[in-house]
Amino acid sequence: xxxxxxxxxxxxxxxxxxxxxxxxxxxxxxxxxxxxxxxxxxxxxxxxxxxxxxxxxxxxxxxxxxxxxxxxxxxxxxxxxxxxxxxxxxxxxxxxxxxxxxxxxxxxxxxxxxxxxxxxxxxxxxxxxxxxxxxxxxxxxxxxxxxxxxxxxxxxxxxxxxxxxxxxxxxxxxxxxxxxxxxxxxxxxxxxxxxxxxxxxxxxxxxxxxxxxxxxxxxxxxxxxxxxxxxxxxxxxxxxxxxxxxxxxxxxxxxxxxxxxxxxxxxxxxxxxxxxxxxxxxxxxxxxxxxxxxxxxxxxxxxxxxxxxxxxxxxxxxxxxxxxxxxxxxxxxxxxxxxxxxxxxxxxxxxxxxxxxxxxxxxxxxxxxxxxxxxxxxxxxxxxxxxxxxxxxxxxxxxxxxxxxxxxxxxxxxxxxxxxxxxxxxxxxx
Amino acid sequence: xxxxxxxxxxxxxxxxxxxxxxxxxxxxxxxxxxxxxxxxxxxxxxxxxxxxxxxxxxxxxxxxxxxxxxxxxxxxxxxxxxxxxxxxxxxxxxxxxxxxxxxxxxxxxxxxxxxxxxxxxxxxxxxxxxxxxxxxxxxxxxxxxxxxxxxxxxxxxxxxxxxxxxxxxxxxxxxxxxxxxxxxxxxxxxxxxxxxxxxxxxxxxxxxxxxxxxxxxxxxxxxxxxxxxxxxxxxxxxxxxxxxxxxxxxxxxxxxxxxxxxxxxxxxxxxxxxxxxxxxxxxxxxxxxxxxxxxxxxxx
Lengths: 430, 300
Known about the structure:
heterodimer, A: mainly beta, Porin, 2 domains, 56% strand, elongated, B: alpha+beta, T-fold, 8-stranded antiparallel β-sheet, 3-stranded antiparallel β-sheet, 7 helices
C-alpha cells in the first residue's frame, strides 16, 4: 500500500499543521513582518565638518529565503574642510569655489574652505533569493544625490554553499556611475585661483579671468568593482571570511574644491593652483574577518590590506567585542586602527621654479596618516522586544610628513594638523 | 491556613528552568532558557491549564465532555466549535493523503485488540463484526457540526498530544518572544526558537529501541520532534509479532512495521503524523520517510 502522492505528503502535512495551529505557513521563518531599523548619527570634527545623518532601514522576509532590504539615508553636512593650501605667517585671501566671494585666513591657521554645506539623499534596494539548491543570488540598486553630485550603483552577487553549508563562496560585481557638476564649474587642472586683490578694472574683467579657469558642464566617473569571497565555518563558535576585491575607476577623480599652494624658497605662497589627479585608478584589497562566539558575547576581528596604482597602501585593523551584560543588554567596545602612506602624486605644496608634475594634490586624505577610532556601544532590548542602542566614538586622524622639506618660514607652520571628531549615534529597531 | 498545592513543580537547573506536571497520561516538561523563575512559573502554569483544557475537551475516557457527546450522538448532528472543526479538517487531510489508512474512527477496533504482550489475538469474526462501525468517509462534518453514524467513535489519540504540545509552544512564543522554550509531553516535543547560549536542548526521551524503558538523549535546536509506535504494546502468537498500529481497512495490525518511528519536522504535530504515516507503510516505512526528506529514526 502506498500513500497518495508520496513526495507531497510532507508539504501537505506542513500546510495542514499550519492551518490547524493558525501559524503562518513558514512558521519557522522568523520575522515574517517588516523589520525596521532607524538611526540618527552625529559626526563632528573639532572646528571643521559636522554631519547629521538619519538612516531608515527596512527588511522584509518573504519566506523561503526571499529577502528585501530597503534603505534611505539623509545627511546634512556643514562646516569647513581643509582646502589643501598651506598655512602662512600672514593673512591669506582665497576665492570661494563659486567665484562670487572671497574669504580670508589668519596667519598660522590652516586654510579651510568654510562654504562646505550640502545635503545628501541616498536610497537603495536589495533583493536576495535562492537560485537553486545551495545557490543564492542578490541584486540591488542605489542612487545618491547631492547638490553637485549624482551617483547610481547597480550590483549583483552569487553565493554558493558547499560542504553542508559550512563553506560559502561568493562572487559579486558592481558598477557605479558618478556625475559631478561643481559649483562655479570644474577648475582646469593646475589653473591658478583667480583672487580679486583689486587688480581688476571691473567686475567683468574679474569674471572673465575667473571663467577662463573653469569648464562648464558635468564630468563622469565609471567604477567597476569585483569581489570574490570565501566564508568558512571553522567550528561551532568560529567563522572566518576572506575577500579579495578589485576596483577599477575611469573618469574624473579630482576634488574640484581642493587646491595647492606654490611656495618660493622662503616658504611664501606665490600662487594657489587647482589640483590634478589621474583619470584612472585600480585598487586591490584583501580582507580577513574572524568572528568568535563566546558564552557571554561575540568577538569580531578584521584586517584589510589595500593597495592601488596611486601607490596608496593601507592597513586597517578593526576589532569589536560584544559582551552581553544580561539577556537583554550588551556593551560593545570598538577599536579601529588605520594607516596609509601617501599617494605618488601627493604634495603638501609645490615649489616655485620646479617644473609642474604630471599630477598633484594636497588633499590630506591622500597623504600619509594614521587614524584611530575608539568607541563604545550600549544596546538594550525594551519590554516590547524592540532594540534601542547608543554609540559613542572618538576618531583621531594624524597626518604625517612623508619626507617633504618645508622651506623658509613654512618650517614654522603646522602643515599636518591632526583631525579630531566625535561620533554619536542613537538607533532603534522595531 | 489553606495551602493549595500547585499541580506542577518548578526546578532550577543551572542556566535554565524546568517546569513539570502530568497530563494526557504522560509526564509533561517545560524547559525555559532563562533564569527568570517567575517567567518559568507563568509558562508552566499556562501549559498546565492549556493541556488540561485540551485533555478535558477531547479525552474519550471522560463522560461529560464534547468527545463523549459526539461519540454518543447516534447519527444526530452535534454542534462543534472552530477548534474542533480545525482538528477534524486536519484529520480529514491525513485520511486523504494516507489513502484511508489514518482514520480517527478506527479506535473502535481496540474493543477487541488488547496489546498487552500476550498471545490473545481476537477471533477473525470479532474483528469483521467491527468493520461496519468505522470509516471516516461515512462521517459528515461541516464547520459547525458533525454527524457520526450509529456505533461510530472518534479518537483523537493519534493527534491530541502533539496538538497540545504545539498549542502550548505557540502560547509560550507569544508570552516569551525572545526566550527559547522546549515543550516535551512524553517525547512529543516542540522548541519555540534556538537557545541563546547553547546550540541545542538536550532531552531524554523513552528509548524506543529499548523495551526495558531506557532513556535516549536527543539534541534538538528548534522545531518539532515526535515518536509513533510503542515497543511495549504488541501481541505475539506463533512467532509472529503484532504491533499496535491497526489497518482500518482490514482491522488487523500493519505487518512488518517498525516498532517505532521518530521524526523531526517544523511542528510537533507534523512530526507525529509523519511518524504515524510511516508506521502505516509497514516495511516501506523507511523508504517513505526518505521520500519526505525529513530527519527520522526507525526502530525495527
